[in-house]
Amino acid sequence: MLSIGIVGLPNVGKSTLFNAITESAKAQAGNYPFCTIEPNMGVVEVPDKRLYRIAELEKSRKVTPTFIEFVDIAGLVRNASKGEGLGNQFLAHIREVDAIAMVLRCFEDPDVVHVEGTVDPVRDAQIIDLELIAKDLETVSKRIEKIEKMARLGDKKAKEELEKLLYLRNILENIEPVRKHKELPVEISEYARKTLFLLTIKPVLYVANVDEEGLLGNSYVDNVIKYAKQEGAPVVVICAKLEAELVSIPQEERKELLSAYGLEEPGLNKFVREGYALLNLITFFTAGEKETRAWTVIKGTKAPQAAGKIHSDFEKGFIAAEVINYEDYTKIGSISKAKELGLVRLEGKDYEIKDGDIVYFRFNV
Ligand code: GDP
Question: Was domain 300-363 assigned CATH 3.10.20.30?
């Protein structure tokens, strides 16, 4: 399962947000098909109204959503890369996640101390990036040291790798996170991601943590939005405190509290969906009387590989996929009816699964 690490300076609301996530995960525990979860990990349902709508229309006896994992990464402080606070340890945890949610404090509260003395979310984001950059520089420099000699002696492979390393070092020395670098050659980005596991190449989602009044926006949020725009990164505005409150009250009362703030759904839902999109994930469905279920694949996945998510036999013996997209489906309201009307397409092995596809795989083994 792909995972998102929650990072941020102390006292910005990370734990509050993470607790809201795990509380809502607990409430969904019945749905969760796996068992033990580590304390700093929370696995939550990806909220998707389409799933429940399909299940209702198909009169499914069981509904199974898809999940995403969040990891609470505590301990990031200024100079952590130099050993401050929990030091280097947390950086190793960031290495293991697929994307980063950077929680930025966008609320004022004299009772909550800010480690930097003032509220300034953009500065905070830059401090975090600085730590990640320092760690990446260390990674790159170590590797350079290791292969430099071989490259100098004429080893072709080492030479090629050294070139990539020098390219990356140059970016990092300019205090630029690798993900922000424009026109990064594909082979260097692949190398940074898959061989070096650099931290600053991971996609980032900015979480502007506001107080209740800030839900309609405030100047801190405006600054975060402007800042995120430079790199085309998404921003989610959330009031972690309100989210924590929401998960602590009965389901029936939540709607009322939400509408008191002019919200249609918990900010957590948006956060989870944005995280999912950040990871380049899409959802397809299988549907029937027995079960309607959501499945996750990376954008661009072809039908046989999507089938393989369900069962390896489905991929091996793949013949074709019967497909109708959710948008078309809801106009008809029944798969069998859509079939009668000839609206279910038959797709072959080169078909790329689209978000919202309802699929029935034909296979033989
Ligand atoms: P962490 O150190 O980043 O994990 O921060 P915490 O989640 O422990 O939050 C630090 C303090 O800020 C706690 O006292 C929270 O109750 C408070 N806090 C978190 N979110 C909000 C918010 O949206 N508004 C206000 N006023 N306080 C908040």
Answer: yes
